[in-house]
Design brief:
This protein is α/β, with parallel strands linked by helices and 241 residues long. It has ten helices and eight strands. It has one domain: Aldolase class I (TIM Barrel, Alpha-Beta Barrel).
């Protein structure tokens, strides 16, 4: 069974000069991304500066997005926190919002070993009301999710996939080797320059920041890569440049 292509916009978080939600810009951005281009949304991740926003702001922003989306697309939310108990508490707060999954990195600051990382994600997945999307972003967390650990975590029924923002294509190919054939686990890339290459290598799609600026380009590039269309890819690369 082939998996559907996943294209998510790693959405920016519009704020006012007073650091409150800019609802007017949020309205425009959501309509541009989903009404005009049919993208799914990933909010409060790295592009959305979820790790910097206060907790109440994050809760209010999630509600504002869900109120505006009205089931027109799938929404995922980042839960970026180094404190395990607070991460779990925030995951529990997603219940009933309609959010399809949570993008969760390993706890940053301390250099955990593989067994500790595995235990952390299994604890969260055991108690989270929404599925987890593992978030591999070593430039920010200083931790990398080894392919071996990812393959083990992929067995958990409440872990739906991984977003790889390592910028390391060899690592992505290792992930493809260990989890790419699973129908219940999604392998997504978060590096804009690797979107086409990752899909051609058997990846399942992207969660990308460039969608905020060029949503149509992202969709056409993904489809050209999926179809194995070199002329289409060349056209989209030239158009973006």
């Amino acid at each position: 069974m082939s998996k559907p292509l996943i294209i998510q916009a790693a959405m920016v978080t519009p704020i006012t000069p007073e650091f409150t939600i800019d609802y007017h810009t949020l309205d425009q951005l959501i309509e541009r991304l989903i009404a005009h281009h049919g993208l799914d949304l990933s909010i409060l991740g790295s592009t959305g500066e979820g790790a910097l926003a206060p907790r109440k702001f994050r809760a209010d922003f999630r509600q504002a997005v869900m109120d505006r989306v009205q089931s027109r697309c799938t929404v995922y939310s980042g839960v970026l926190n180094a404190v395990p108990s607070e991460t779990l508490e925030e995951l529990r707060s997603l219940k009933g919002l309609g959010i399809a999954g949570a993008l969760v990195p390993p706890p940053f600051y301390y250099l955990l070993n593989d067994a500790e990382i595995q235990s952390y994600f299994e604890m969260l997945a055991d108690h989270s009301p929404v599925p987890l999307m593992l978030y591999n972003i070593p430039p920010y967390t200083k931790l990398s999710l080894s392919p071996h650990i990812v393959s083990k975590l992929a067995d958990h029924p409440n872990i739906m996939g991984i977003k790889d923002s390592s910028k390391n294509f060899e690592y992505f190919l290792e992930l493809r080797y260990v989890v790419g054939d699973r129908d219940d686990f999604h392998l997504l890339v978060g590096t804009d320059t690797l979107i086409a290459s990752s899909i051609q290598a058997g990846g399942d799609g992207t969660v990308c920041a460039i969608a905020n600026l060029a949503p149509e380009w992202v969709g056409l590039t993904c489809l050209a890569a999926l179809d194995g269309d070199p002329h289409g890819l060349a056209k989209e690369r030239a158009r973006l440049a």
